């Protein structure tokens, strides 16, 4: 199941991405056949893998991912051209920001609820939300669907390599990481943290917000925690393998 298919490069990365797509669907964090994950595969980040247009996350396979070049103006004329908003958002970011190796964009329920609030910041009210302390930015100026101009605007908001999360006001969330495992781990924890925050707000009672000092300390501890993201993705792949999933095909 995990053997590389002929003529396909970056096989492990493809399998990791396909597993992330499949598990995101299991968690109900995808939306129809929208939303996209991408992963840079060259040094300057301009060539990247991304999901094909119209394929549901639950049916994603390693071999189905397409490899495109952010600097190729003919990309949208290819017979296997990506979704126009995938090209607009992911192409713009990979073109401009070599540090943004992996991008995961979803309209998951709790992240989107957060993005719909007048104040969309995620405060550090627990250990999970502290992961994103001083590492998030809110896009306050939604300008419509993420075609190229909107994607370029979003890329400018992510210029600081410290930012791992863009809460896209009136839209959803975009997570940035160095690897598939790191990015998916953040995506998972952001949705959990957003759910905790929304549920806490629903009580109508005061929030217990961490001090700046402890929130930053905890965020750094998350960053330094050994192998957590790799273990997380490895176990998800093992579970998919036990189910007989076709993700690695």
Give the helix/strand class: alpha+beta
What top-tier CATH class fits best?
Alpha Beta
Number of strands: 7
Into which percentage range does the β-strand content fall? 5-15%
Q: What is the CATH topology descriptor?
A: L-fuculose-1-phosphate Aldolase
CATH superfamily: Class II aldolase/adducin N-terminal domain
Overall domain count: 1
Proportion of residues in helical segments = 40-55%
Order of helices and strands: HEEEHEHHEHEEHHH
Runs in which pLDDT lies below 50 for 5 or more consecutive residues are: none
Mean pLDDT: 96
**Radius of gyration over all CA atoms, rounded:** 18 Å
Specify the biggest β-sheet.
Answer: 7 strands, mixed
CATH architecture: 3-Layer(aba) Sandwich
In whole angstroms, the N-to-C terminal distance is 6 Å
Label the overall shape: globular
Provide a count of the helices. Answer: 8
| Order of strands in the sheet with most strands | 3-2-1-4-7-6-5
Structure description:
With 249 residues, the chain is an alpha+beta fold. It has one domain (11-243): L-fuculose-1-phosphate Aldolase, CATH 3.40.225.10. The chain has eight helices and seven strands. It has helices spanning 11-26, 84-96, 109-115, 127-130, 148-157, 180-203, 212-224, 228-243, and strands at 36-40, 47-50, 66-69, 102-106, 136-139, 165-168, 172-177. The chain has a seven-stranded mixed sheet with strand order 3-2-1-4-7-6-5, sandwiched between helices. The longest helix is centred in the C-terminal third of the chain and has 24 residues, at 180-203. The model has no long low-confidence stretch (mean pLDDT 96).
